[in-house]
Structure formats: structure tokens, C-alpha cells
Amino acid sequence: MKRIAIIGSTGSIGTQTLDVIREHRDQFTVELLACGRNISLLKEQIAEFQPNIVLIERKEDLSRLEGHLGQAKAYAGEEAMLETLMSPSIDFVMNAMVGARGLKPTMSAIKAGKTIGIANKETLVTAGHIVTDACKKYGAELIAVDSEHSAILQSLRGNKMSEVERIIVTASGGSFRDWSYDELKNATLQDALKHPNWSMGQKVTIDSATMMNKGLEVIEARWLFDIDYDHIDVLIHRESIIHSLVEYKDKSVMAQLGSPDMKVAIQYAMTYPNRLELHGTERLNLLEVGKLHFEPTDKDRHRCLDLAIEAGRKGGSMPTVMNAANEIAVEKFLKEELSFLEIAETVEKALATHTQISHPSIEEVLKVDEETRQRVAAQ
Ligand SMILES: NC(=O)C1=CN([C@@H]2O[C@H](COP(=O)(O)OP(=O)(O)OC[C@H]3O[C@@H](n4cnc5c(N)ncnc54)[C@H](OP(=O)(O)O)[C@@H]3O)[C@@H](O)[C@H]2O)C=CC1
Ligand SMILES: CC(=O)[C@@H](O)[C@H](O)COP(=O)(O)O
Ligand SMILES: [Mn+2]
């Protein structure tokens, strides 16, 4: 029986992780559930999965859990999360939080030598060098959950990284893939939130619309698979059926295909290197799909993709600035305080005005992250 901790249990990845557990009660138990502010959904999750530990963001919400905890102990705040994630009663941590606030809990789980399903890509973007070094030091393992990285992991099975020529990360193109640049000037929040293929949390849906998501995913791939940027390409594939590809030196290309459903990647991370049945997922019917389409990316339209890769290549504190500026810009866009095209402008400006630290420590990463957030919020 694998004992699972889910941080971000009330979100899109968190609830789908619970869907997988519901289907395999003989394989998994829930040890810990952590969320932010959605206490009503958390109460339902506690009743159904009976965890031993429950974590929430704010102390003032603890009283709302009274009478709903069963056997669980409840705590609030980040310190409690960092401590409880190290518990020996946890075998696997699903990091389904959104944003760089997932970094500290990831580090805690790493220090306890845990296996971590890392949906929270921003952690690898903001501090990839620190996270991967710490995994080596503490014998922890990060397993890809992001659909593209799960596809890459699956396409690498049985082969050596030294045999890989390049990784090809596929992109749907997001909500605005068929809009002209001029039309983007008037893009609304409601338009941006309509992802063509996936139903996801708001932040990643906006990142997908700006193609920042693909930039974050290139950096995520660089760290998860220890491959340099010259060997990672991005290809627009509007159907989201091929979830990514690996080209080998002998020109063989391995890919993972499937209907767009995150439960497949979530379950694979939880059962890796094995597989289990998954009933609640649509079987891929290529006759129905008919055709698969591929297009190149476009430097002018996909400004965020370029900014992210440029920051990744420069390294040091640049990805931290890029990520923090993007998080705040997306928050502002979600409050309709910023236009769609201003997201890229905000990130570009934050990067241009930052003095790079070449090899930041975790304290420096956290400081740069906070300073950038304040700088961008004040604009
Ligand atoms: N959704 C998807 O299909 C995919 C997502 N990803 C990545 O996975 C990550 C999660 O995305 P997604 O599930 O869409 O995001 P959501 O916004 O749907 O969920 C975020 C979760 O984080 C929780 N949270 C917020 N603050 C805290 C806190 N202080 N302590 C604990 N939990 C907190 C939220 O809780 P609450 O709601 O209770 O406030 C919620 O459960 C992101 O990095 C995203 O890029 C990657 C691939 C696909
Ligand atoms: C499901 C998933 O992994 C998302 O990160 C997805 O990649 C978003 O789609 P696009 O960024 O390709 O539009
Ligand atoms: Mn993805």
C-alpha cells in the first residue's frame, strides 16, 4: 500500500490524483491532504479519504474543520507543511500546488528522501539547479507529472540519455492559436480561459494561452532530464494527442500518445515504473482523430516562449525573475488589471531591469522571487 500526500488536493491535479486513488483503493491510501482556502471541498475529501494529516493555508479557517476531521490532525501555515511532509508515514508526495510557493515543500520532501510527483513545474523553473542537486544529495526522486514530461519519461524507457539527439515538446498553441496578433490586443480573460483541449487550473490555462507554459516546460525538461537547451525543441500540435517525443541519434523517434487526460500521467507517476489499469479514461481512437497537425512556433506571436527560454539559457537568477514576474502578471490579468499582451511586456521589463546572480543559493532564489513580485505588483 503506497501512502500518498497531496499538496494542492482541491485543485485540478489534486482532485484528479484523488480520482486515481478512488479507482485503486487496494494500492493507495491518503496520508495527508493540503489545500489553500477551499475548505468545503477539503471537508468532502477528508470524509471520503480519511487522511491522518490535514493542512490549510490560514489559521482562521481551522475552526471550519472542527467536527469534520475524523482521525486527522489539522494544522495551518507553511511551517506545519514543511514539517509534516517529512513524516515517515508518507511514501509519495504529489506536489499539485501552483506557483513557486511549491519550492519549499518540495525541498522538505526531498530532504526526507521522498519520491515526489512534480506537477508543480514552477519549482523546477525557479530553482532547478538547487532542487536537482538536493535530490542527488538526499536520494530523493522527482517523477514527471506534466503531460509532456510524462510522455518524455515514457519515451525514454529502456534507452540511455547519451543516445538522445533531442527532445521535442509538443504545444497545443493555447486558446489563441488561431487569432491574429492584432486580434490579441483585444483578447479578454474569458477568451483566454477557453483552452481547446484541456480543462485545467486558471494559471496554467493563461500560461498556455501566452505560450509561457511551453517556455516553463522547456526549462522543466532541462532539469528533469538533464539535457541542454540546444537539444530541446518545441512543436505546435493542435490535437494534444502526441504528448511529446524523443529523437535518438539513430533518427528513431519515440513518442507517447493518448487522449488528453491528465489522469494517465498522474497515475503513471504514482505507479512508476509499473502501470495499472485506468478505466475512467477515453481510449485513443486514431480513426476518429483522422489527422494530426504540426506547425512551427513564431518568435513574434510567442514572445513569452522566447523570454522563458532566453532566461533559462542565461540561468542563475534569470528564470526566478521570469517566473515570479509571470506569476504576478497572470494574477493581474486574472483580476483584469492587465491586458493579455501586457503579460509578456511585464516579464520582459522585469528581466531587463534585474542584475543577474550567477549561481543563487536557495535563500537568494527566495529573495529574488519576493523582490520581483513586489516590483511587478507595484507597477
Ligand atoms: N491542471 C492541469 O491539468 C495541469 C497542471 N500542471 C501544473 O500543476 C500545478 C497545479 O496546477 P492546477 O492543478 O491546474 O492548479 P489549481 O489552481 O487548480 O490548484 C492549485 C492548488 O494549490 C492549492 N493551494 C494554494 N495555496 C496553497 C497553500 N498555501 N497551501 C497548500 N495548497 C495551496 C489550491 O488550494 P485552494 O484551491 O483550496 O485554495 C489548489 O488545491 C501547476 O504548476 C500547473 O502548471 C501541469 C500539467 C497539467
Ligand atoms: C496538460 C498539460 O500538461 C498542460 O501543461 C498542457 O501542456 C497545456 O497545454 P499547452 O500548453 O500545450 O497548450
Ligand atoms: Mn504540460
TrEMBL record:
Which pathway does the protein contribute to? Isoprenoid biosynthesis; isopentenyl diphosphate biosynthesis via DXP pathway; isopentenyl diphosphate from 1-deoxy-D-xylulose 5-phosphate: step 1/6
- The answer to whether the entry has keyword Protein biosynthesis is no
Function in brief: Catalyzes the NADPH-dependent rearrangement and reduction of 1-deoxy-D-xylulose-5-phosphate (DXP) to 2-C-methyl-D-erythritol 4-phosphate (MEP).
Please list the reactions this protein catalyses: 2-C-methyl-D-erythritol 4-phosphate + NADP(+) = 1-deoxy-D-xylulose 5-phosphate + NADPH + H(+)
Q: Where is the 1-deoxy-D-xylulose 5-phosphate reductoisomerase N-terminal domain?
A: 4-128
**Record: residues binding Mn(2+):** 146, 148, 217
List, separated by semicolons, the cofactors it needs.
Mg(2+); Mn(2+)
Q: Which family does it belong to?
A: Belongs to the DXR family.
- Domain DXP reductoisomerase C-terminal, first and last residues per copy: 257-374
Name the source organism.
Geomicrobium sediminis
Report what the protein is called.
1-deoxy-D-xylulose 5-phosphate reductoisomerase
Q: Which residues bind NADPH?
A: 10-13, 36-38, 120, 122, 201
1-deoxy-D-xylulose 5-phosphate reductoisomerase C-terminal domain boundaries: 142-225
The superkingdom of the source organism is: Bacteria
The UniProt entry, under SUPFAM superfamilies, shows: 1-deoxy-D-xylulose-5-phosphate reductoisomerase, C-terminal domain, Glyceraldehyde-3-phosphate dehydrogenase-like, C-terminal domain, NAD(P)-binding Rossmann-fold domains
Quote any Pfam family the record assigns.
DXP_redisom_C
Q: Which GO terms describe its molecular function?
A: 1-deoxy-D-xylulose-5-phosphate reductoisomerase activity
Q: Give the EC number(s) under which this enzyme is classified.
A: 1.1.1.267
